[in-house]
Design goal:
heterodimer; A: alpha/beta; Rossmann fold; seven-stranded parallel sheet; 7 helices; 17 strands; about 25% helix; B: alpha/beta; nine-stranded mixed sheet; two-stranded antiparallel ribbon; about 30% helix; globular; binds flavin-adenine dinucleotide
């Protein structure tokens, strides 16, 4: 059986977990077994609809206290459940919480783990999974040598599959270990799309000259419904908040569309965004290295190009 | 307070990524090595800041690697570690590495074990979480702020679209990222002092690897950029909608 861990926050299942369920269901098909999901805590989502993503069953430990994430407690409950259900493969989204618990679960189950996976396993010579390495600059095919396997799948690398079925819900009863982490405050930036979950991202670099010029970028992001990001010097200079910094030393993202405005495309920047499906570069310097990594490029002054781009998008949306 | 800081050696961020031996090994030819930036800039520097506030703090560094990791660990000592341990193993299996660190951690009464959020070569982000399971200690990952007061750590960690504050009773394990501290450059005094700081080499404990690397590959090169004139923005929108199908 393939067991997929469902991550959630504010009573909502994360998009990355939807993808993890579809990924786990595809592995279950390869192995000829069932794909079942595990939820710790409570959500507002209708759990039967997880069948549409490929889960035949949802095991739920229905306890409000588990809505506070505690890596030690969560990992322990997941490992116990995986053992009880005799799961062969345990799948996580390689997102913030997945990174915190998947390796713990692997240790507890004596399972080999591949994090940052980006493809279905190959079963030709045992069990091999491809993952991104060198910050997206290369791939490695990793063989898991143990009977049990843990895989954490990169966000936006498998997509969501549609199944015509519904999941059954099975409530579990397990003793809950004492909390090791006390959550004393949660500070969500309201109304903003989290970068790691965004399909569309508009990003700005030093070419925008200063924080006072960010309006044109924010207008474009708003027109598209995109999240915003920036290069390292921009966040280092406090033009934009730290959490927008993408690249080798910031966050790594893989949206469907990444629009880079006034960013030169240094190798450390590319390392954070090169897994994006489509890259658009707007830069006034035709020699900017970013053009080599781009799908579409506009050589021009951002202060003219970006407002025109925004206007063209609004026009397209208006005509839809 | 006793802090164990995990230090990994990684290729420089501009290193050419190429492979040898039938694409089974990273090509180290001409590669400059650095301390993994997350280990150095965020985790180690924060440990040093804690020691600056409370000079009774001991900072021990640990690296799992061959003799070629020594310049890296000396640099970390120059920045401000007190002593270092190198476990003489060249494994690249996260589980084996975590078992080595755990074996050392069990011998010292560490209040805090600190790692970077991931290494920039294998990007596995596994060690902290594995240590938590092996040592049965609390773990907070992707932390961008840490204060220690008595036996309580107050930590801010990243969550999707925001931040969360956690309180944890020590001992614990923490993985660090941007925001935690600012990069420092070692000074001459630190470099001189590092030469005589203790660097102990120990043999690895026997552990079986759970995984092995079979083959590396490079992503297909982009086919070439399609240039759109600055006054043709409607054309760009059309391409994104109809050709790339992303909006
Ligand atoms: C160890 C290490 C780690 C690093 N990690 C990261 C990281 O994680 N993320 C990151 O981003 N960087 C990182 N860097 C820094 C990186 O090397 C670059 O310095 C940085 O990405 C450059 O940012 P930028 O493109 O915004 O600025 P610049 O390189 O200054 O580029 C500005 C660009 O704007 C263009 N421009 C100027 N005016 C206009 C205009 N009016 N219209 C259009 N275009 C214009 C210019 O042609 C230029 O290409 C790292 C560096 C090191 C050494």
């Amino acid at each position: 059986m393939v067991l997929i861990y469902i991550d959630h926050s504010e009573k909502e299942i994360k998009k990355s977990s939807h993808e993890a369920i579809s990924y786990g269901a595809a592995i279950a098909k390869q192995l000829g077994c069932s794909a079942e999901a595990l939820l710790l805590g409570t959500v507002n989502d209708d759990l039967t609809t997880l069948g549409k993503l490929g889960a035949s069953k949802v095991h739920q430990l229905n306890n409000e206290s588990l809505n506070n994430f505690d890596a030690k407690v969560h990992a322990s409950l997941i490992a116990t459940t995986a053992s009880n259900l005799n799961a062969e493969v345990i799948v996580f989204a390689h997102n913030i919480n997945g990174k915190a618990i998947a390796p713990s679960v692997a240790v507890k189950l004596d399972a080999g783990i591949v994090t940052g996976a980006c493809s279905l396993p190959s079963l030709q010579n045992g069990f091999e999974v491809t993952k991104t390495v060198f910050s997206g600059k290369a791939f490695a095919s990793i063989k898991i040598e143990t009977p049990k396997k843990v895989i954490a799948i990169n966000q936006n690398s498998f997509g969501i599959q549609n199944y015509d079925s519904s999941a059954t819900i099975e409530e579990m009863n397990l003793p809950i270990p004492t909390a090791s982490v006390k959550v004393t405050n949660v500070n969500k930036i309201i109304g903003e799309i989290p970068l790691t979950e965004a399909n569309l991202v508009v990003s700005g670099g030093r070419g925008l000259k200063g924080p006072e010029n960010w309006g044109i970028l924010l207008d474009l992001a708003k027109a598209l419904g995109a999240a915003t990001a920036c290069s390292r010097p921009v966040s280092d200079s406090d033009w934009r908040p730290h959490h927008e910094h993408v690249g080798q030393t910031g966050i790594q993202i893989a949206p469907n569309l990444y629009i880079a405005i006034g960013i030169s495309g240094a190798i450390q920047h590319l390392a954070g965004v090169n897994r994006s499906k489509t890259i658009v570069v707007i830069n006034k310097d035709p020699e900017a290295p970013f053009f080599k990594a781009a799908d579409y490029g506009v050589v021009g002054d951002a202060f003219e190009v970006v407002p025109a781009f925004t206007a063209a998008i609004l026009k397209m949306k208006h005509n839809e | 307070m006793n802090i164990l800081v995990c230090i990994s050696k990684t290729p420089d961020t501009t290193a050419k990524i190429a492979f040898t031996e039938g694409n089974t090994k990273f090509d180290e030819n001409g590669v400059q090595w650095i301390i993994n930036p997350y280990d150095e800039w965020y985790s180690l520097v924060r440990a040093i800041e804690i020691k600056e506030k409370d000079p009774t703090t001991n900072i021990h560094l640990i690296t799992v690697g061959g003799p070629e990791a020594e310049p890296i660990i000396r640099k970390a000592l120059a920045l401000g570690g007190d002593e270092a341990i190198r476990v003489n193993s060249n494994s690249n299996d996260s589980y084996v590495i975590a078992q080595q660190i755990a074996a050392i951690a069990k011998q010292g009464a560490y209040d805090l074990i600190m790692t970077g959020k991931e290494t920039i070569d294998y990007n596995s982000a596994c060690i902290g979480s594995m240590l938590s399971a092996i040592l049965d200690l609390p773990y907070v990952s992707l932390a961008n702020h840490l204060e220690v007061n008595g036996n309580t750590a107050t930590i801010q960690r990243e969550i999707e679209g925001g931040e969360e504050t956690n309180e944890v009773i020590l001992p614990m394990i923490i993985s660090c990222q941007k925001g935690m501290a600012e990069q420092r450059i070692p000074n001459m005094r630190g470099i001189m002092a590092a030469r005589t700081k203790p660097l102990k080499v120990v043999d690895p404990v026997a552990t079986n690897a759970h995984t092995s690397i079979k083959e590396f590959s490079l992503p297909p090169a982009k086919t070439g950029v399609k240039l759109i004139a600055p006054d043709q923005m409607e054309e760009l929108v059309k391409l994104l909608k109809e050709e790339a199908k992303v909006i």
